[in-house]
From TrEMBL, chain A:
It comes from the Bacteria. Residues 4-234 form the ABC transporter domain. Keywords: ATP-binding, Nucleotide-binding, Transport. One of its GO terms (molecular function) is ATP hydrolysis activity. It comes from Sphaerisporangium album. InterPro entries: AAA+_ATPase, ABC_transporter-like_ATP-bd, P-loop_NTPase. Pfam families: ABC_tran. This is ABC transporter ATP-binding protein. Belongs to the ABC transporter superfamily.
Automatic annotation (TrEMBL), chain B:
It holds the Pfam family ABC2_membrane_2. GO terms for cellular component: plasma membrane. GO terms for molecular function: ABC-type transporter activity. This is ABC transporter permease. The chain crosses the membrane at residues 63-86, 98-118, 138-168, 180-203, 209-233, 240-260, 280-299. It comes from the Bacteria. Keywords: Membrane, Transmembrane, Transmembrane helix. The keyword Transmembrane helix applies.
Amino acid sequence: MTILATEGLTKRFPRVTALDRLTVSAGPGVTGLVGANGAGKSTLIKILLGLLPPTEGTATVLGLDPATRALDIRRSVGYMPEHDCLPPDVSATEFTVHMAQMSGLPRSAARERAADTLRHVGLYEERYRPIGGYSTGMRQRVKLAQALVHDPKLVFLDEPTNGLDPQGRDDMLALIRRIGTEFGISVVVTSHLLGELERVCDHVIVIDGGRLLRSSAIGEFTQATRTITVEVEEGRQALADRLTALGQTVTAHGRLLIVETDSPAAFDVVRDAVVDLDLCLVRLEQGRHRIEDVFREEVANV
Amino acid sequence: MSEPSPATAAAQASPAAPTGVIHDIGYRHYEGPRLGRGAALVALTIQSLRGVFGLGRTARAKIMPFLIGGTMMLPAVVSIALMAVVKQRGVAYPSYALIMQAVLAVFLAAQSPYLVAPDLRFRVLPLYLSRPVTTADYIAAKLAAMALAMFLLIAVPLTVLYAGELLVDLDGPPQTKEYFAALATGVIFAVLLASVGVAIASFTPRRGLGVAAVIAVYLLTSAISGVLVGVLMSVSRDSAAAWAWLINPFFLVDAVQVWLFGTSPNNDGGYPEGVGGPVALAAILVVIALSVTALALRYRKAASS
């Protein structure tokens, strides 16, 4: 099942090309949309919501074309913008109720859903106070609540961790993970911080300069390069020489040796080499590549 | 002891036992009805209309609309008192909005920026547009709210005055025709003023600037009209002076009222004979159309940014 798909999607503004023949697709679950500032993430979301017409190409969201069925899409999609979008003089409750009604919920249902949703995003007594006095973390929660209040099938979260402190960031990411799993709502979340998305996404789409750099399941990102990290107390050079002699590719990273490998047998080779040289083994583990590294490599190859 | 004592078992089973457990019922999906665009439009109109009168807002936001609402009632109250005490009519129905034109203008200037400026300034507009509504729906709701507010401001005192007249029961028939003529004219006032006010206010995200702009337009038209009328009258160009009255939007509507309902003019010297009424009506329609076009263009730009 495809939640959204684009085919050769292009958006040109008078002076800049925001999207350049972008072809991507995403299934249910949490999809990360990664790119530097100005990579075209927000433009893509606006096209998918039917707020901007694409210059070329087609898109589908929940099987509907945003160019013709924008209203139907917006009925079952939630949107949390990147920028501040809250009026200061109303309370979070009133605002969320109003936004639920704007999505077509009857007033009584809107009240009930607003109370539920605000509780889920973690706003309690303070939801009766005017939004003007809220902290950034609370504002982000209200923004998230208004995107979820009409129980959409899909939410677009544009930079939801922007401006949050590390604790708030963790809370927000945990909440996004819950939305994708427990709530059963598909999520498209953008970020320019790749490490964050690694923790919550099932699938990551990397775009740069409006073009697709990579689109794959999160597992493939982390498995993309298989290495073994070895740390020994002394004789690091001797071990490196021995492993090289055995035909392994070894690079030194400070106190660590990174052994590139293609099979689990390499673990045995390293173990035997350490035993033969009579060294003290401190660490022997699967090298975990972070998405940042993949991103960096791909950008370098382009 | 192999079995729990009866007392313990009873305490565990008893629903009255003060357990105080908070149940996390988890996320519940919404299975109820989802209404269409019309319902959203009505919701936005009602929300905006309440806001115009300060309902659901801070106490400070209520001062201005309530003060103006009270002021609008004054002539009606005084007239009813006159009818009751000295058996004499006070303010005529068709004159009501004209006499109170400055008050209506202040209300329009004070409240129309509230409808549009905060949504632009705090960037709430993208949220509205991410809902199943179009920019046209948004504009329609805001215009409807302001027009309804202006109409209430005119119609409520008129209705109170009419009810007063019926209760006091003066000699002769009640002025029912004049009352309904004034109500119908009230609709024209409401739509014209709301369109102009909201259109002007929508061009700035700053409320203060919006207030100043709307009041400036009223003062400017009424001053230009007044000066021209004075000059033309002094050189005995009375027919030209009759046209000059129409520059003021309130007398423009009054000219239509005179033409459509045969009421007596509320200015000195009357309006242009013959084509004056139709021209005034055409001018009103043109101004409304221009305002709505300006709003549509304004929001098309705002939506794509």
